[in-house]
Amino acid sequence: MPRGSYMFESGVIMSDGGKPARTTEEYAAELLAQPWRDPGPPPTAAAEWIAGAAQAELPREWEVELPVGPGEEPGWSAAAAVLQPPEGAFTPAFSTIRRRLRKAIWQASHDAEPDRPSSDDPEAMTRALVALITESAVAGSYSRVIKGRPVDSPFNLREWWRGHQQHCEACRRRGPWRQARRSNHLNPCYIGDILTFLHHGVLFPFAAMPAPFAVDSYASLELAPETCEAEFVKMRAAGVLLPVDKKDCQYLNPWQAVIKDADIDAAGVTLGSEVVGRLGDPDEPGFLDRLNAELRGVGAAPVKARLCVDFSRAINDLLLELPFEYPPVDQLLEQLPARGWMQKVDYRRCFLNIPLHPAMHRYLGVSWQGEYFLLRRLLFGISLGPAVCSIFTAESARIYAAELLGWPVNRDKLEEDKPAQRMAYRGIVFDSVASTVSIAPHRLARCTALIEVALSDGFMAVRRWRSLLGHLGWAEQLMPEARPHMAALWEGVHRRLRPAWRFQVSEAAGEELCWWRSRLEAAIAGDGQAAGWARFWEGGWPPITRIFGDAAGDDGFAALVGSSVFVGAWHPELPDAFSSTAKELVGVYYALRAAAPRLPRGSIVLVTTDNQGNAMNFCSGKAGAGVRALFRAIWQLAADHQLHLLGDWIPREFNVFPDALSHLGAAPGVRARLWPSAAPPDSAPHRAP
């Protein structure tokens, strides 16, 4: 296998041991002796920059010179760390693999791990939060010593300890809770910090402590005064609010009502758009109360108005950030046995159960109808809220005893969420008998209705547009070919536009919406394959095919798939705007177009490259504006043949053979032999980069 440096002017490719592997003249002579043929028309997005292209079959003995032989997964391949034999009945679904492969590529190419713990990893999340606290302005208030009575909350610390011992051998050896609590500050396990939060309350990592402030509550409360009043009464009854005198409330945060556009859209499906339209504008006072009256009249559940506090005015900017990521929903497959059963447990008012440290109370003041209160529990509006909540929910998921821990369970949903082999979870429907994942029809109908509004009116409210993109984001989890069709939609509206503003839908965004409409309509009609609905991979990975690719400056490009090799030459007047990232995609397009018809449906195609950007793009399904057209053409080829595209990054020293072939167009006599009409290359010696 040749690797290392090589020079065309001397005609030698240096091998691993420093000995000549082959001369470039020998490469050219042997390749030119093969029966070459036209590989077909070039991709439209790059046609004017290609002087010529050709396809041939590699001599069998050359296969040893490929970076990866058939069936091999070398240690320096980013995919090798991800595509391991699955431990459960099902392999992880596609979006899970795509996410893990992106992380592996980052680690392999940067020699570092991105510092983003996953929300389902309580240890990583807990240690990240504690690290922030210990370097913040509140570090002096943090103590793992547990004495006296805990702060007010519904949680049972003894049961949290006993539940944790079920899956932690080290903590099992520390004995029962009465014994363990005395040495909690000496316990190196992360559960010691979780128990500290439960006993003393959660501290927020302030970079600097806020100065006194007072901000009036927002007019959004007038959208649903009755609903907001009912929510406030429930908070007070649950012990979330601590009454204080006005003089003790020097940090006054504003209340606001948050209503999800998705909930209003769902009500529109239930009542009909005409009924909702008669109720007035969603921004008018009392709109939500009128809408809920109509819903109750037809026996439907009312729309929630979430009573939140806007801490962004004075609190959130002073908090240290804790970046984390939610795992893709289809990661559930790794925990699901064949024909397995699933169950959901809905925690009632999840945030409002998590206690806050008394040192935090004074900064979380609010007022309601002339009365003043301090918040004692976590509330929507704190930027760290989702991260803090994930610590407790992730640990609870490992214990499987929600009510024993103290979580109040939403009993209204227990019947709906009872054990089943088909269940909707976070918008995705899992079926362990049919071995499929899909999206509920009512969500698809909601998406198409919003698309119709945007296409028919040509204008859309910013908040409604963002709601639409949220819905499409759920569908995109199961439609890999849809990812390249999201970029223009996100670019269609500037992030600084206010939610109530209306904007004109761009022509590019309109084209993408038409694409989405056709795919979703096919899904609603029952054509699951047209919508890209995923099927579980059972008993191992589907077939994996590698495409190797590279491109060389002003010379040309090359790609290999199986025994087929594709080479091409660039037009002499290649513009600088045609980037190296785009050049490498040209060979991939030719190779995939030739290989796709004969690959089994559902196969994985690993685009193997030393270009980290392209490898990441194939895993994320997104690309910059300069390469988007080429990228979409490749993804559409994969979608037409129901193939899964992924990227794999390898170091340059292992990609020498494809790199050498990409310079073939500069070797003497090659252009005249393969592309007589192409301009001849320079006669001066050429050095490969």
What do you see in this structure?
- The protein has 689 residues and is of the alpha+beta class.
- The chain folds into four domains: 6-94 and 541-674, 2-Layer Sandwich (Nucleotidyltransferase, domain 5), CATH 3.30.420.10; 122-200, no CATH class; 213-415, Roll (HIV Type 1 Reverse Transcriptase, Chain A, domain 1), CATH 3.10.10.10; 436-535, no CATH class.
- Helices cover 34% and strands 14% of the residues.
- The strands form seven sheets. It has a six-stranded mixed sheet. Strands 12-13-14-17 form a four-stranded antiparallel sheet. A three-stranded antiparallel sheet has the order 1-2-3.
- β13 (428-431) and β14 (436-439) form a beta hairpin.
- The longest helix is centred in the last third of the chain and has 18 residues, at 507-524.
Might you state the CATH topology name of the largest domain?
Nucleotidyltransferase, domain 5
- CATH homologous group name of the largest domain: Ribonuclease H-like superfamily/Ribonuclease H
Q: Which runs of at least 5 residues are low in confidence (pLDDT < 50)?
A: 1-24, 528-532, 681-689
Q: What percentage of the residues does DSSP assign to strands (E)? A: 5-15%
| Cα end-to-end separation | 19 Å
Characterize the main sheet. Answer: 6 strands, mixed
Largest sheet, spatial ordering of strands: 4-20-19-18-21-22
Number of strands: 22
SS-based class: alpha+beta
Shape: globular
